[in-house]
Design goal:
Blueprint: H1 8-13, E1 39-46, E2 57-64, E3 68-75, E4 85-91, E5 98-101, E6 103-104, E7 120-125, E8 136-139, E9 156-158, E10 166-168, E11 171-173, E12 185-194, E13 197-209, E14 212-214, H2 219-230, E15 257-261, E16 265-269, H3 281-324
Parallel strand pairs: 1-9
Antiparallel strand pairs: 1-7, 2-3, 2-8, 3-4, 4-6, 5-7, 10-11, 12-13, 13-14, 15-16
């Protein structure tokens, strides 16, 4: 058995990586020290600016709660007073060596430091068991080695900002995503300098006719282009504006109905004026009612005739009795 590496595990137990070996990781209050088991690796992708020093990135704050931990990253320069971003909601119950994406602050400082607030990164968490013994918010000061928490410069990569994903209509697309021109759409790629940083700009334009390309810069341009192509649309009817879906609803009243006909037709009809035939149920019901009415009329007439005859007979008998007296 080799004796050269017998103490390797003990020495590795006291490693500072991914913090620098000189970083003590003790918070400003002297209460909490960053456990070596908490952060096992970190990767930050920063803008390729000459003024950026990869030796100045550090762990600015660690917020420890019972179930989640937030690790905030800062840049040790007076020109960058704000945190660059945070590894948010790191689960204290996640599996060992779980990784989390960096959430940039996206602050617009309107100076040369703006790209720093839009960088990306990833962190690997080992075991949070020791860290959750110290619930609270712990901040670190880079003024001396004991309280510093500088990140190893080799974990800072200069280059293009990483795109984590593209969201389209609620769907997330990762990996290689290809943008392709569709019908009447043109994409133009240009490069420009912004605060000394070269950036790529993709401009989308649309052509509404084959004669030339039309730049649609705002809603007024789109409306004008549609009017030129299709004419002025109906905006109001008797001062009434359309609904939220730009529809005017035509409704029937009394005996008038409005019904769709085919894919694009509308039929306005008056069912009350529609000619009927003998087989129609309404006509049958009316004829049955008339027959019943005639039957009752005949019965009533027979009763009336019988009553008239009886009354005439009675009157005759009264006349006879009157003459005898």
């Amino acid at each position: 058995m080799s004796t050269v590496y017998q103490e390797f595990l003990d020495q590795n137990l006291h490693r500072a990586y991914p913090l620098t070996d000189e970083s003590g990781g003790l918070d400003n209050t002297g209460t909490f020290r960053i456990p070596t088991s908490l952060i096992t690796d970190i990767y930050l992708c920063v803008p390729n600016l000459l003024l950026i020093d990869c030796r100045k990135f550090y762990v600015e704050n660690i917020l420890i709660r019972r179930y989640f931990i937030d690790i905030t990253i800062g840049y040790n320069d007076s020109g960058v007073p704000r945190p660059l971003g945070t590894f948010k909601n790191i689960s204290t119950q996640a599996a060992v060596q779980s990784s989390y994406a960096f959430t940039p602050s996206q602050y617009q400082s309107n100076d040369v430091w703006t790209p720093l607030y839009h960088m990306t990164g990833q962190i690997v968490i080992g075991d949070a068991a020791e860290a959750i013994r110290y619930l609270g918010s712990w901040t670190f000061n880079q003024s001396d080695a004991e309280h510093s928490s500088l990140i190893v410069p080799t974990r800072i990569a200069r280059g293009l900002l990483n795109v984590q994903y593209i969201s389209i209509n609620g769907r997330l697309f990762t990996g290689n995503v290809v943008l392709r021109e569709g019908n009447n759409v043109k994409m133009q790629v240009d490069t420009r300098l912004n605060h000394g940083l070269q950036e790529t700009v993709i401009t989308f334009s649309a052509s509404l006719n084959a004669a030339g390309t039309l730049q649609l810069l705002n809603d007024d341009d789109i409306f004008d282009a549609l009017v030129n192509r299709f004419g002025v649309p109906i905006q109001t009817i008797n001062g009434l504006r359309p609904d939220a879906e730009h529809n005017f609803n035509v409704l029937g009243a009394d005996c008038t109905t409005v019904d769709p006909s085919g894919a694009h037709g509308v039929v306005v009809a008056n069912p009350c004026a529609t000619p009927c035939c003998d087989e129609d149920q309404n006509i049958k019901n009316i004829m049955d009612s008339i027959a019943n009415l005639n039957l009752r009329y005949a019965q009533l007439k027979a009763f009336f005739d019988a009553s008239a005859a009886a009354l005439n007979g009675l009157q005759n008998k009264m006349l006879v009795l009157g003459s005898e007296v």
